[in-house]
Amino acid sequence: MIQFPEIQSRVQFITKINEIELHILREDEIHATISGNKFRKLQYNLQEFQKGNYDSILTFGGAYSNHISAVSAAGKEFGLKTIGIIRGEEIEDKINENSTLTFAQNCGMKLHFISRENYRNKAEDNFIQNLKNKFGNFYLLPEGGTNELAVKGCEEILGEHTSNFDFICCAIGTGGTISGIINSSEKHQKTLGFPALKNSEFLKNEINKFTSRSNWELISDFHFGGYAKVNEELLDFINEFKSRFDVNLEPIYTGKMFYGIFELIQKQFFPKGSKILAVHTGGLQGIEGMNKKLELKNKTIIK
Ligand SMILES: *Cc1c(COP(=O)(O)O)cnc(C)c1O
Q: Which residues form a coiled coil (predicted)?
C-alpha cells in the first residue's frame, strides 16, 4: 500500500504589522516534486487506486498545471502508470519549450493533447467512455485532483500546531484544499479563501459540497484579472516578499493570496491582536513557465 509519511509542516513567523501577526505554514516543503496541497490531495486517491483493479491513473490539466506535475511525479516515485490529458492541441509540438510538460514526460506520464473545445467536455460520461476505449481501465482524477478523498487528505494540513491561530488563509482553485482546511479548523478559527479565478461565485457551492461548517469566507478581490493573469505590481510584490522574508511565492495562487493579506491588514480587516496563518500550498514549479512567458514580453520576471 502506498503510504505517504505522516507530515506536519512547519509554521514560520513572517512579520508583525499594526499588532497583527502573520505566519506561514510551509506545506511547500513537504515534498520536492509532489508539491504542497497536491501531495495531500493525492495520498488517499493513490491508496484507492491500489485497492482497485486499475492499470493507470488518468487526469486533466493545462500546460503549466501543478496537478499534472505532481501526479506525474507520484507516478515516478511509486512506479504507477499515469496519463495526462492536456488542454490545447497546439502545445503538442512544443513540449520541449514547456518545463512542466517536459518534467511530466520525463516522469513517465503519457501526454495526450486535446482541443480547448473538447476539453470542456471532460466531466461528461461520453467523453470519459471514449477515453476508456482508448486508454483502458484507468483511475480517474478530476482536473485539479479534487474529490472526497482529496478533501480528506487536506484535512491533515491543520493540527495541534496550528490551533492557536485566529485566521487561516488559503488560495483557491477548485476549492478542494480549503474544504479540507475548513473541516479540520477549530471552532474559534475563521478560514479565508482567496480565489485565483475571476468568476468565483460557483465556489461557494463547490465548497459546501465538501463541508457543513460555516466559519469561512471568500475574499474575491485579488484575482488580478483572472486565472494566471499577472501585472507588474504583483510581480514586484512577489520579488519583494522573497527578498524580505526569503520565501518564494508563485504568481498563480500564493502570490495573489499574500498580496491580498497585506492589503487586508492595511485596511484593518483583521481585529488588533489577530494571529494569521497563511498556507503556502506549494506549486513553485510553475514559476519557470511563467518567467518564460514574461521574458518574451520583456516584463519583470520572478527571482
Ligand atoms: C492547485 C493549487 C491550489 C488550489 O487548490 P484547490 O484545491 O484546487 O483549491 C492552490 N495553491 C497551489 C499552489 C496549487 O497548486
A: none
